[in-house]
Specification:
heterodimer, A: 218 residues, Butyryl-CoA Dehydrogenase, subunit A, domain 3, two-stranded antiparallel ribbon, 2 strands, disordered N terminus, B: 488 residues, Transferase(Phosphotransferase), domain 1, 17 helices, zinc (chain A), Mps1 binder-like protein (chain A), metal-binding (chain A), MOB_kinase_act_sf (chain A)
Chain lengths: 218, 488
Amino acid sequence: MSFLGLSSNKPKTSKKPLHASTLQKQYLQKEYAEQTLGSGNLRLAVHLPEGEDLNEWLAVNTVDFFNQINMLYGTITEFCTPLDCPVMSAGSKYEYHWKDDVHFKKPARVSAPVYVDHLMSWVQSQLDNEAIFPSKLGNEFPTDFKTVVKDIFRRLFRVYAHIYATHFAAIVSLGEEAHLNTSFKHFILFVKEFNLIDPKELAPLADLIESLLAQAKN
Amino acid sequence: MDTNITEDFLDHYIDLFSYLKKRQERLQTLKRDLLRQKLSLKEYEQAWMEFQTQESVRLRQRRTRTQVIQFQILTQVGQGGFGEVFLARKIDTNELCALKRMSKRHLHLQDEVQHILTERDILTSTRSEWHVRLLYSFQDHQYVYLAMEFVQGGDLRTMLTARGVLREEDAKLYFAEMAMAIDALHQQGYIHRDLKPENFLIDCKGHLKLTDFGLSKGQLAESRIEAMKAELRKVKDSVEPMMPTLRRGASSMMLHDLHLQQQQQQQQEFKNEGIRRAYSIVGSADYMAPEILASKGYDFGVDYWSLGCILFEFLCGYSPFQAEDTRQTCVNVWHWRKVLQRPVYDTKENLEFNLSDEAWDLITCLIANRENRYTTVEQLKQHPWLEGLDWDNLRSMPASFVPVLATPMDTSYFDDFSNPDDMVGYKDVLLHQAQVQEAEQADAAATTILATAMRATSRHLPVILQTQDPWKRAFVGFTFRHHCNESR
C-alpha cells in the first residue's frame, strides 16, 4: 500500500505567510526540551521485554501511540481548521496528500483537518480489525503484521510533524509542550528500536529528533 | 471544551512504568524460583513457556483498555449523592456488573475524592469472599467508574425493613457474616467507622458481602463527622436523651404478622411490596461509636460497636439510639448508658419477641465502653450466643432468606428508577445532586476564566503544574482491571 505525497525539496510556493516562523523552531530551545518528562526511563521502556512476542509488543505500543496522538491533536483542533491549514503539511517544505485506495484512489490535496481525520479513522479501522490486531486470546497476528505497523507509524509521524511545524505555539499556550515532547521522544525511541520508519520520512523533524535523541542519551 | 490532558497523560505514563516494573519483578521471581527447584531441562522450558504465555495474555489485555462504551447499560439500580449505579454488561466478556459512575468535579466539590480513592484501594487489594469484588476501575474526562461484581439480593436494610425483626437463629448467621467481613477489612488495616445495614449486600444464595468502604480511612467525610460533633457540642447538655420506642400499635402488629408468614411468602412480598425508605445525604449516627463523636482516638473497636447496634436492630426491629433527627441521635449516642435498654414484652402474643439472655449479653459486650468492648472475632467465637456456630463454613450454610431471582439480571430487589413511587425516597438525594450540579457549572465556568487568565500570565510555570483543574490529578493511577488468573 504505497502512499504518495512526500514532495521534499519542493520550492516553497505562495503558502500562507509564516507568521509563526520565530516559533517554528522554538521547540528546539533547551528550556522547552528540558521540560520533557521521564527521559531516562523512556529508553528502557521501549525495549522488547525478555521473552515477549515482538508482534504483541508492537501492537500494544501502536495502540498507545495512536491514543496519545489522538489526545494531543484533539487539544488543538480549534486551531487546525481548513482555513488555517488548507493543506496537510510539515513546515513549508513538506506536503502530504491523502490516498487510501478506497475513497481516494489518487493522492488528494486536502486540508490538514480532513487529512488527519482520514488518517485517524484509517488507523482506527485497522486497530478494530480482529484479523490484524487480534484481541481475543488465542487469535494470532497476520504474517505481514510488521508491515502494517510500519505503515501506521509512518502516517502517525505526520500528525506529530504537522503539530510541531504549525501548531507548536498553540501547544505552548495550552501548557502541553512537555506532553508533546515526551510523547514524541518516546515515539521516536520506539521507531528507532524496531526500525519502523524510513529515515527519509523523518526529515521534516530531523533536527528535533537529533536533539531529543542526544538528550535521551544523557 | 475541556482540553486538559495532563491527568490522562500522567495516568498513562505512571501506568506504563508501573507495568514495566511489576513485569520485571515477576521475571526476577520466576528466575529465582526456577533456580531453587531442581528441574529437568524439559520442565524448565515448560515453566518458562507458561510464564511467557501469561505475560503475553496480560499485554494483550492492556491493549484493549476499559472504556464506558465497552459496557451495555441495562438498568439503573442505585442513586447516591455523587452518582449513579447501573446494572451493566461488559460487551466483550459478557460479565455482568454493578457500574458505579461518579462525576469527578462533583467528588471534588463535595470533598469526596479521598473517599473514592480509598474505596478503590481497598477494592483492588482485597481478596476476601466477604467483600464485593472490583472488576474494573477506569475514568474519562468527566467521570470515574467502578465496575463491581453485581450482588443481586439487594441490601440488608431492604431485607430488614421487609422482615421487621429476625429470629435469633436467623440473626446469628447474618451477624457472624458481618463480623467476618469486618474482620477481613481490619486484617487489611482499615477501619470502617460508618457501618450500617446498607453497607451489606445479599448475594444470590442469601449470604452477605460488604460494599461501600468509603469512610474506611478517615480522611474523608471528615467534614460530615465534624458537623455532627459541632452539633453535639452545642446541644449535649441542653437536649435530653430520648429512649427510642417501637411504636406499639402498628409495629407490634407488624412483628406479629411477619412472624406468622411463611418464609416463601415473605420473600415474594418483600420483592415488590414497595418498601419505601428515605435516602439521606447526611448519613446517620445510629450505628456510630461515641468515641468518634467525642474526638477521642478510636480503633477497630468502633466497628464492633456498630455491629452491636445492628444486632440490636436485628432482634428488636429498631436501632438502639434512633431518633427523629441526626442531632437527637447524636445526643442519644452520647448518653448511651442511659438510652440503651433491653425491650421487654409482657403481652402474651409478643412474649416471643423478648431477647434471650445470651443475645442481650452479647449486645452489651459490643455496645459497651472501650475498655470492656469486644474488638476481635475470636472473642465473638467464644460467646455463648454463638456457641456451636461453624465459623469456617458460614457461606455454605443455608440462609434464612434466599433471593428469588428469575435471571442473573433480575433487579427486583433494587428500586425501580423508572417508577415515580420508588423515587419518592430519593427526593433529598436528587435535590442535593441538582444543587451540586449547579455548583459544578459555576465552578467549571470559574475555572475556565481562571485558566484563560493563567495562560495569559503564567507561561513560565512548570508545565506539569499548569492545568485547568489541578484536582483532576488526584485520579492519576485510578485505572484497574481484574486478572482472572490472579484472583481466587
